Amino acid sequence: MVWIKRLMIGSAVIVVGIAGWLWLTMLSPWFYERPSHLPAIEPRTHHVFVYGTLRYAPVRWVVMGASGNPQPAILEGFKRQRLDLAPNEDAQTKGLRLEVTPQQLARLDRYERLGIRYERVQQTLADGSTAWVYVRLPTLSQLLTPSPDQWVALVP
After folding, report:
1. Quick one: 99 exposed, middle or buried, by C-beta within 10 A (0-12, 13-18, 19+)?
2. Is residue 17 very low, low, confident or very high in pLDDT (cuts 50, 70, 90)?
3. What SS3 state is found at 43?
4. DSSP strand E in the chain: where?
5. Residue 39's domain spans which residues?
6. How many angstroms separate the CA atoms of 47 and 105, rounded?
7. By the 8 A CB rule, do 71 and 65 touch?
8. pTM value?
9. Total domain count, the chain
10. Is 148 left (phi over 0), alpha (psi -120 to 50) or beta?
11. Is residue 156 part of a domain?
């Protein structure tokens, strides 16, 4: 009987811990402040292409407070690398196109740490529609260490 009580208490601690982490990282007023150099969000319906964790409805509900009316979509010219995208003219990435309000877009920006971890760029999807896509910003080490492509460009 004691082990059942301990299991229940341990499970409750884990659930509360996960819920607390989700709230702190996605919804709390701490740990993220929108950079001042970013433009204001236009007051209209926006479309966003998601290809990672936001493909899952429970994550979208926690982050945005809505499903976003998901539609299957394909982004051509990019290859998915874990939770990031890399340009690749021969690749395509499957995901979802969401319809979001300005408030939901602001919540997505917070989740993606817009201006700190990701930038939001307008891209044309395979069906011809356009959508915002979150693309990882380069890290300091990537900026300071030239890639082999840059080395080729430096050689005369």
Report:
1. middle
2. confident
3. coil
4. 46-50, 71-81, 84-100, 118-124, 130-136
5. 32-143
6. 9
7. no
8. 0.74
9. 1
10. alpha
11. no
